[in-house]
Design goal:
This protein has 250 residues and is an alpha+beta fold. 39% of the residues lie in helices and 18% in strands. It has seven helices and seven strands. The chain has helices spanning 20-30, 39-46, 52-70, 96-104, 118-135, 157-176, 237-249, and strands at 36-38, 77-79, 83-86, 145-149, 192-201, 204-213, 218-228. The longest helix has 20 residues, at 157-176. The chain is elongated.
């Protein structure tokens, strides 16, 4: 189905029907979940410009052509007064790696089936997008990054690094644990920046923590924090770690 459409039996014998609409009929059934479609649906994709009686007659002719081309395999194609079904086949789309490579080399889904029917043209365009999405390489999670701005050199900057590390560890524990089952939103395309800015004054660091959408540099969440090394109860780091993690996951 990637590249020129073709049908082979298990011995490699070519069983491809000659008619474009007969080939398209096989493709429509092969790409349908359950591989079964109502006759009216198939007629609307391949003979939408004909009256119902004419379209039904054309479908019967295409089915006859298909059974003749399939020969001993004709029993894989079944039909009744309402539906047509296909069974007992394999597609090259099952080998995602090979199909992905073929697409990367410029081949297309269902090359050479040129049918001037708006119903089929629309289906083909949508199906090519669907196939491309199905074969797309899975993207790894987009990490958020840390940027330290306007912090003095030396040990004072360690407060910002420790804060960012705590947020990252908590987020990772949540994402890798039971919490990931509750995440239903979509990722931001550009990921998130965790930005920590601040200044040191005597024994305290006055910090501003922000989560920023990288794509448009919009601040999604921010919080101010006074961090102290003296253990005097003014250190708001634990609270900010939890709030920043929750904001990131939301």
């Amino acid at each position: 189905m990637i590249g020129e459409f073709g049908v082979q039996d298990e011995a490699g014998q070519d069983c491809t029907p000659r008619g474009a609409k007969a080939r398209a009929l096989l493709a429509l059934l092969a790409r349908t979940p359950g591989h079964r479609r109502p006759r009216r649906w198939l007629e609307a994709r391949l003979w939408s410009d004909r009256a119902q009686e004419q379209a039904s007659g054309s479908l019967r002719q295409a089915l006859t052509e298909l059974r003749k081309a399939l020969g001993p395999l004709a029993d894989r194609l079944s039909s009744d007064r309402d539906c047509v079904a296909l069974a007992g086949f394999r597609s090259d789309l099952a080998d995602a790696s090979a199909a992905r490579q073929a697409l990367a080399q410029g081949r297309e889904f269902l090359e050479g089936i040129d049918i001037a029917d708006p119903g089929f043209s629309l289906w083909l365009a949508e199906e090519r997008e669907r196939v491309a999405a199905e074969l797309a390489e899975p993207r790894p999670p987009v990490p958020f990054s840390l940027r330290l701005a306007d912090l003095p050199e030396g040990t004072e900057a360690a407060i910002a690094r420790d804060l960012a590390g705590a947020v990252a560890r908590l987020a990772a524990e949540y994402l890798l644990g039971e919490g990931q089952r509750g995440l239903t939103g979509e990722r931001l395309p550009g990921g998130l920046d965790l930005q920590v800015e601040g200044a040191w004054s005597e024994d305290r660091a006055y910090l501003k923590v922000r989560l920023v959408d990288q794509a448009n540099q919009k601040t999604l969440w921010s919080q101010r924090l006074v961090a102290s090394r003296m253990g005097d109860g003014r250190n708001g780091a634990p609270t900010v770690v939890f709030e920043a993690t929750e904001a990131q996951l939301m």
